[in-house]
Design brief:
Number of domains: 1
Strand content: 15-25%
Number of helices: 7
Radius of gyration: 17 Å
Oligomer: single chain
Distance between the termini: 18 Å
Shape: globular
CATH architecture: 3-Layer(aba) Sandwich
Helix content: 40-55%
Amino acid sequence: MEESGVRCLERGVVAWLTGLPASGKTTIARIVAEKLRSMGYRVELLDGDWVRRTINPDAGFTREERRRHLLRVAWIARLLARNGVVVLCSFVSPYRDVRAEIRKIVEEEGIPFIEVYVKCSLQECIRRDPKGLYRRALRGEIKHFTGISDPYEPPEAPDVVLDTEADSAEANAGKLLRKLMEVLSAAQSKPKT
């Protein structure tokens, strides 16, 4: 269904981009969001920095604090997708068990969930270091920093792998966009129950 150029979806989809800090998650998500908007889809990009600054400013970085923070985001994403929004979530989300909880929260509502592994070596992320966080973490100024003093557990069976060392942000965005279109098409063709 379309209303004045906007594609109205019965249900949206949640694409969850996970990867080390500076791997390129948000850059890719922004490109995909813009492309989807230009196609008439309603899109929300939930980014780790923005959520920590606005919705969840007291979120810490211990394992349990990260878990609580990410599960809150999962519920927000679920609510948006339930109302026909394509939701792109860009979060380091370093722990497999927490990502499994996030998937469960979204899928129990009947919403498609796409786990997207934004793959980039620690060495390359340290080289990029756009915010200087790795340098500070290596000096011991930041505790619980993923990849330095806290682990990152790569997905074992992600729905999509985007290698930001091998491919450009545009190429990776195109790959994710194709997966989203495939999932949206399949979801819209299912018979209503």
